[in-house]
Amino acid sequence: MRVLDAARDLTCDAGWDQVSLSAVATRAGVSRPSVYKEFGSRAGLGRALVIRETQEFFAGLGDILHPGLPDTHASLEAAIFYVLTQADERPFVRAVVAAAREGSDSLLPYLTARADPVFDTGQALLRDWLGERHPARGEQTVEDAADIAVRMTISHLILPDRAPRPTARRLAAAVLKLLEDSP
Q1: Is the entire prediction scored with pTM above 0.90?
Q2: Which of 39, 108, 172, 175 could form a disulfide with 44 if both were Cys (CB 3.0 to 4.6 A apart)?
Q3: In Å, how far from its chain's centre is CA 154?
Q4: Cα–Cα distance measured from residue 176 to residue 65, given in angstroms and rounded to the nearest whole number
Q5: What is the pLDDT of residues 59-106, one digit of tens each?
């Protein structure tokens, strides 16, 4: 959709704080009232933009996990590495993460604090995958492991403490240890 493309481009160029519905409408070649009619508000536009971007993002993540590598650790590490490197490779993710690192969090809540689309989608994808790989583990243990993996990966995405590869290796090991150590 042209309006979401325009919103993404403006966000990547100047940051979400500088994006107005008027600027989005102008860039998309539509009227401002039509943007309001479609999205209701700037927040509605931001939410729709994040949903679209995360759907594309999770499609890539799903491709890594399913069918995935035979080695569960290597597959999980590859998935976490994918997430951590997207901050540099996807302009929209890079713009949101860079703004968060600089103290602006206007789009960050859609990625981290609100239940959907990132947490719910990420946890469901990982929960299902871990459940397939560890069918003997209880549902709650698998859900906890997926929750921890998603929260810790996003934390390292926003505030990295080392290079993506060792972080991915460490997080994958911790999540799988939780599964192995649980009754």
Answers
A1: no
A2: 39
A3: 7
A4: 15
A5: 889 899 988 778 999 999 999 999 999 877 888 877 777 777 776 656
